[in-house]
Amino acid sequence: MGAARPQARSRIIVPMGNEGIRIVSVEVDVGQSAMLLARGWSFDWNERAADLVGGASRLKAVLIDEEIQGLVEYEILQRDLYVFIHKLEIDPHNRGERKKYSGVAGLLLAYVARESFNSGCDGFVVLVAKTVLQQYYQARYGAKPLGGARLYFDTGASVRLIEEYLAGKEIRYV
User: How far is CA 2 from the centre of its chain?
Assistant: First the structure.
């Protein structure tokens, strides 16, 4: 067994020679979704949550070397002045102690926070978190409880996410 890799808490660890990190709009078809599920992903990314409630969501992926590292589906609720995250998931190989890349979830959250500012929602973002992740989102990313499993990021928390994960980084957005 090899030596454990050092883990950075707040940075994306990118292997040498990487062409860069991209955040892109994606559509996940049935075949791609089946492949992700077979690799241990939890959500069926072919099914769009917003379609079920008559909304218009956006689906973004973090790509490193053209491989999906994480996905987020969100909807800008302009009338309510916040962005709602329907689903957020990172590749199973980016979870736990032996993760390949660290910070993918933070990068996705920061991206959505920036979208909230760009849409006139002052950085407000709401999500429903799995029970096991609620305390983690609060401690690591600055989320606040909203009631039940709902958490929210206010202006200050969103600014901190953007500063930590997006400021000064060479990330291409498509």
Answer: 30
Three-state DSSP state, 169: coil
- Predicted structure pTM score: 0.83
In DSSP notation, 33-96 reads: HHHHHHTT--S-TTS-HHHHHT---EEEEEEETTEEEEEEEEEEEGGGTEEEEEEEEE-GGGSS
Residue by residue, pLDDT tens for the chain (174 residues) are 343 333 333 344 443 334 577 888 888 888 899 999 999 999 999 887 766 555 678 888 888 878 899 999 999 998 899 999 999 999 999 988 888 888 899 999 999 999 999 999 999 999 999 888 999 999 999 999 999 999 999 999 999 999 988 876 544 444
- Residue 121: HSE in the Cβ half-sphere, 13 Å Cα cutoff: 25
Give domain status of residue 7, yes or no. Answer: no
Q: 89: domain range?
A: 21-173
Q: Is residue 127 included in any domain, yes or no?
A: yes
DSSP assigned state of 121: S
What phi and psi values does residue 142 have, to the nearest 5 degrees?
85, 15
- Decide if 144 is inside a domain: yes
Cα diameter, the chain: 54
